[in-house]
Design a protein that fits this description.
This protein is an alpha+beta fold and 142 residues long. Helix content is 20%, strand content 30%. The chain has a 6-stranded antiparallel β-sheet, with no helix packed on it. A hairpin with a 3-residue loop joins strand 4 and strand 5. The longest helix is centred in the N-terminal third of the chain and has 16 residues. The protein is globular, with a radius of gyration of 16 Å.
């Protein structure tokens, strides 16, 4: 049996005093996620792995949090492609920060963080910045 990798994390929007601006950013983000492949068509990212709260007061105060998670067969061997796909998604979203945790059976836990130089990212912006922190928790699980 091949090793399993677990990938999970969240993408956070930034709070705003303007409710209309928050609504437009949420709608844009929802639309982008709805365009992701579904079912067996997704190689790395798919609609089913993302979730978010829609209604203010029901898990949504000011900041939209998009959470995600999936299990893969040894995705660490294709991790550069996974990161490229995730960053292509980030470039299309509104967000302030994003974090991805990669848990591998042999390599432990890796944490990747994206932060915008200006404190927020709009789809019109270009470059992304990533900071990687590597944590190792009990390798070789049985």
């Amino acid at each position: 049996m091949e090793s399993e990798s677990i990938v999970y994390g969240c993408i956070r929007d930034w709070p705003s005093d303007d409710p209309e601006q928050r609504r437009l950013r949420r709608e844009t983000n929802h639309g982008v996620l709805a365009e992701l492949p579904s079912g067996d068509l997704w190689p790395f990212l798919g609609q089913e792995m993302f979730s978010f709260c829609d209604l203010p007061g029901a898990g949504l105060y000011q900041t939209q949090v998009i959470h995600f998670g999936a299990s893969y067969c040894a995705v660490e061997y294709e991790w550069n492609l996974w990161i490229e796909t995730f960053e292509a998604l980030l470039k299309r979203l509104y967000w302030a920060s994003a974090v991805v945790h990669l848990e591998t059976e042999l390599g432990g836990i890796h944490t990747f963080r994206w932060e915008s130089d200006s404190g927020f990212h709009s789809p019109q912006e270009g470059a992304l910045r990533v900071r990687c922190a590597w944590e190792r928790e009990g390798a070789l699980r049985g």
